[in-house]
Amino acid sequence: SGGRVLAVTGVGPSLKDALASSYRGVSKLSFVNDDGAKLMHHRTDIAKGAVRRKLKIGVLGSTRGTALLPVMEACESGALHAEIVAVVSNRSKAPILDKGRSLGPTVATKFVSAKGLSREEYDAECTSVLVGAGVEYVLLV
């Protein structure tokens, strides 16, 4: 009938592994008509874009950024398929901002002062930086 007949889900330690598990499951399926002709078609593009592109991480912190170092190293080595695209702090001299700047000029690194702002205004300012950088995941340090 042209509709979806079956969904296959795979599980794995990463999205790439789960995707491979799903397609292994699909390869074990077969639908045929009375004459033995194959009647099955399956998509091969599911999650491909998500597997290829790096996740965009934004960081909110007011510390030295020591906890950020393993994330930076994992991004650099490829162990974490992601990139840090923004670092925001409420402290102008926070070393975490220096760590953000060390990642290069494409990383949005910004001090956002809470002075004179309501909580909502402060949150909106931080959110604006993160959204402007295309952040998909926020890491709180």
UniProtKB/TrEMBL annotation:
GO biological process: purine nucleobase biosynthetic process
InterPro entries (alphabetical): Formyl_transf_N (IPR002376), Formyl_transf_N_sf (IPR036477), PRibGlycinamide_synth_C_sf (IPR037123), Rudment_hybrid_motif (IPR011054)
GO MF entry, a single one: phosphoribosylamine-glycine ligase activity
Formyl transferase N-terminal domain span: 56-141
Pfam families linked: Formyl_trans_N (PF00551)
SUPFAM superfamilies the UniProt entry points to: Formyltransferase (SSF53328), Rudiment single hybrid motif (SSF51246)
Protein name in UniProt: Formyl transferase N-terminal domain-containing protein
Lineage: Eukaryota, Sar, Stramenopiles, Ochrophyta, Bacillariophyta
